[in-house]
Amino acid sequence: MTADGRRPSLSPRAGTVLPVALTFAATALVLAWIAIHSLYVGRHAGSPRRTIFAALALAFACVVVAVSLAVAVRAVMRRRRLAAYLRPGELIVGVFGAELVEDARLAASARGRPVIITVTNQRLLLHTRDSGDEPWRALEHEEVLAAPEQTPVVYGALRRCLVQRLQLIDGRDLVLRMNAGAALDFAEARSQYLQRRPRDMRALVVGAEGPTPSRPSQPLSTITPNGRPAVCLLELGENYLRIIGEQSPPLADLYYYFHWEHMQASEMLPAQVPGIPESWRCLRLIFHERSSLTLCGTPAAIRRLHEHAVRQGAAPVRDS
Questions:
Q1: Where are the beta strands (DSSP E) in the chain?
Q2: Does 193 have pLDDT greater than 60?
Q3: Are strands 291-297 and 281-287 parallel, antiparallel or unpaired?
Q4: Interatomic CA distance for residues 318 and 269, integer angstroms
Q5: N or C: more exposed end of the chain, with fewer CB within 10 A?
Q6: Beta strands in 148-279 (DSSP E)
Q7: Phi/psi zone of residue 171: left (φ > 0), alpha (ψ -120 to 50 degrees), beta?
Q8: Is 6's pLDDT higher than 50?
Q9: CA-based end-to-end distance of the chain
Q10: What angle in degrees, to the nearest 10, is found between the helix axes of 17-40 and 48-82?
Q11: Mean pLDDT over residues 108-128, rounded?
Q12: Residue 64, helix vs strand vs coil
């Protein structure tokens, strides 16, 4: 559950691809129904003109179905190829089409560079036609300093778009022009992953050992499904750390409260986990000397977690 009371969702979405495919499929069904109606319903059913019209409708329906299948298959194949570039615990949240514009003031008239935006639970990936499956640019969530509300514009004669400006931590801006439908879908991912909240952060849980302090009968390893690394939302309270597993049942999250004064925090150490960037750091949190969690993330994120833990009462320790 996020700070505004909503439960995080990681169900993969295809941005504008799936709605387009479904629209084509619905159109094919309508054309097939019209063809059948022309052949079997009405006083002139089966007449030469009705037969020719039905044949044309069925032909168009077949073309529409083929296009729908091609769109869906292409999206699935692209997701599979993209999976080769994903890190441990990284899942695709949504894929969105957009155009990269140089200046937000010219978004209603300037031509844009077509890009594909892939939002994951760890970062933001941008693909261009030249980059293929390998991301042209990858941004950690925390590299997006702010994501203001989207601005509506009319591009061309009839195309209604929304302009999204992402303010990066290095001072630069990414100006993205999206079709209205794709932009509305992107708004949910933007709100969940790209807008900063003072008490929340995400980290990759790579190790969970021992019992859950608030429920000794439940192993702490239930945070990591099948023992694999998992991205979790951390709520940094004044008296406690709450861990919300994006893949765990909501009721199980009620047990993942850890009080700072009953916690020990190790030093920041290199991640040394296959598939994770070399610059990332790990932090080991020990509870009652019986349980521990190992969290990984960017140096800035792990430093923030360590400083908050020590400031709120966790005992700093050195790993042997």
A1: 92-101, 113-120, 123-127, 137-140, 144-146, 151-155, 159-168, 173-179, 200-209, 211-212, 215-219, 230-236, 240-245, 257-259, 263-265, 269-270, 281-287, 291-297, 315-316
A2: yes
A3: antiparallel
A4: 10
A5: C
A6: 151-155, 159-168, 173-179, 200-209, 211-212, 215-219, 230-236, 240-245, 257-259, 263-265, 269-270
A7: left
A8: no
A9: 36
A10: 160
A11: 89
A12: helix
Cα angle vertex 252, ends 263, 118, to 5°? 95
Token look-up 């990936």 returns: 125
Distance, CA of 6 to CA of 314 (rounded, Å): 29
- Residue pair 38/45 in contact (Cβ under 8 Å)? The answer is yes
Q: Is the pTM of this model over 0.85?
A: no
In tens, the pLDDT along 236-281 reads 999 999 999 877 777 778 889 999 999 999 999 998 888 899 999 9
**Contacting residues for 50 by C-beta, under 8 A, at least 6 apart:** 38, 39, 42, 44
Q: pLDDT higher for 45 or 267? A: 267
What is the SS3 assignment for 255? Answer: helix
Say if strands 263-265 and 269-270 run parallel, antiparallel, or are unpaired: unpaired
Instruction: Report which residue type is found at 221.
Output: S
CA distance 72 to 19: 10
Written as six digits, the tokens of 164 are 């999204």
CA–CA dist 4, 196 (Å, integer):
12
Encoding tokens for residue 54? 């039905």
